């Protein structure tokens, strides 16, 4: 539900924009408000879960998320909708690290955890594409508020089942301290940074842009100072000395920067240029879900046996190829000839990227650090996605000479897809430069020798 909500809004964006009479550069805040608050408070969410109980904060997050979904459904203005999306992000920031750290502390490192995280990755990444399908169905046959109302019964059911089935766990040796100021400075620092990037379409030297960048710099520097001086920091900066964790977060940040934008601009192309209905647009992403499920399952088997680095590298190369295909989309294109091949390549690549990186992010750590590691990893995904979308939206907009000319609009999409490929390429280079075999030895140590055949 958490991952699905990051993309379910995309298919409904044209309908929301039409009803509320707002432009695409404003609509992107419905995606970014969620991603930024989600990413900004993930670290605090992971920390309080470690200290006070992962199940407890999983349940609290469910209540917040479900209530915010109802508020979004009845929202009558863009401002209230953005506020509700922010509150959803806060609930998600409590749910997501608790869920991942519960898995990491329940399953032993090695083959057992690899299998569990294979299921996790397939559901989490597949949820992005399912969100597009469900968003299309609900928008066309009901109305866009139902993309939020649908979370209410799901949230209630999840709460009731979790009371009975989810085990409680916490770090009983940790100090009871919560770095609220750290969470606030990093969240608002990143939000003002994204706001500044979005506003660069009015000029990089405008007073609004320069002010946003200055405020962001002050807040982010303050965050680092707070973490260095705190007795129990939100982010213990020494954890980045663990090379596997550092690599996984850098790689995830860059991959997400490209993939979030791919969903956003592909949706606009399919509905705006190919004139698909919301349901048709949602169904158009069904092959993406299938590719993710297949490749994540294969990656969970291959990664411990042949190595997480080769599996992730192949996945990134496939994704880059798929994104580059999108730079050739024509104005008079078709779904089967022009969109489908890129979706298949990108989905097969992404399933083979996310699962190994999740393994790498949680290896070589004590159980007491799993909440922090999970929070960092999810933060990299959400903040990377938000920043990438803001940057690539600005690039695409700057290359559209006439917004009413379909050819110019598609040219802007080409620049955005090219930028997405560059982000994923940067992730590949970072992983190969930072990660060595000894950094992932624990993942591969428990695997049985096997001849792998596809």
Summary, kept brief:
By secondary structure, the chain is an all-alpha fold.
Describe it for me?
This protein has helices spanning 4-20, 24-52, 54-74, 78-106, 111-141, 146-149, 151-165, 180-198, 207-229, 243-273, 278-284, 286-306, 308-326, 335-361, 370-398, 406-434, 441-445. The longest helix is centred in the N-terminal third of the chain and has 31 residues, at 111-141. With 454 residues, the protein is mostly helical. It has 17 helices and no strands. The model is unreliable at 446-454 (pLDDT under 50). It folds into 2 domains: 4-179 and 230-444, MFS general substrate transporter like domains (Growth Hormone, Chain: A, Up-down Bundle); 180-229.
**Biggest sheet: strands, sense, closure?**
none
CATH architecture of the largest domain: Up-down Bundle
- β-strand percent reads under 5%
Q: How many structural units, i.e. domains?
A: 2
CATH fold-level label of the largest domain: Growth Hormone, Chain: A
Instruction: Identify low-pLDDT runs.
Output: 446-454
Radius of gyration: 21 Å
C-alpha end-to-end distance: 32 Å
